[in-house]
Amino acid sequence: MQQAAEPTASPVASLGGARERRFSRRALLGGAVAASVGWVALRSPLDLWPDASALSSDLWTATGEQREVVLPQAATVLLNTQTRVDLQRRNDTVTGLVLRSGETEITTVANTRDFMVSAGQGRIAAGRARFNVRYTDERVRVTCLEGEVDVAHGAQRSRLGPAQQVVYNDIRLTDVQDVDTRRVSAWRQRVLVFDGMPLNQVVDEVNRYRPGRIVLLDDRLGRTPVQAYLSLDRLDDFATLVREVHGANVRSLPGGVLIIS
């Protein structure tokens, strides 16, 4: 978002009249208030409410929210936290979607030919299938849970069967890998699974689900691997985990802010 230009001196105020000066101050104050209201509407600094980009999407979830949406004669779409989706239609029938950000699990209906999902620089086509697409940190992760899905990224093509996954960014598509689908879909049971993930990445993941902000100030601590199962319904346990298991200092501030050092 472009920053507002700095206010310049009013030509009316430069005339020197008292009434003109009062008018100039009122106008300047009014402009500042209007600009601040616009900033608040467009962006929530602590993820306390959805931003304007989410509200403009066909489907979206707020921080910590999960939704199920049934698209008649097309698919059932499960949206994880902080997810934005636009629907693709042909003759008033939904034929696919565009994942702008976040994570979704899609189950297509039996008579679907090619349900298309666009995310970043890739496209996913599925007939009868269930699959997970996650688009965070400028990377897209596609995991087939049931059936088969085709992934296209530029000139590269991959076909995925159950328990197979590819990851891509703007430049390349990885080889097909076998994965544990229980971990991929753990969010559906409202659980986060961390198996050796560095603490700094764990903090980033928890911040996707938790209003407010966790700030990690210790780089060395941030490289520490974490083994944990964390319930989305008990995210306050994260502070206890970091304090008791990793010996960190955790300070709680208003607005859901946690400082870890």
Automatic annotation (TrEMBL):
The record's Pfam families line, in alphabetical order, gives:
FecR
Q: Which residue numbers delimit the FecR protein domain?
A: 58-149
| Organism (species) | Alloalcanivorax venustensis ISO4
Query: What name goes with this protein?
Result: Fe2+-dicitrate sensor, membrane protein
Instruction: Write down the InterPro entries for this protein, in alphabetical order.
Output: FecR, Ferrdict_sens_TM, TAT_signal
Which Gene3D superfamilies does the entry link to? 2.60.120.1440
Q: Which PROSITE patterns match?
A: TAT (PS51318)
On the tree of life, the source organism's domain of life is Bacteria
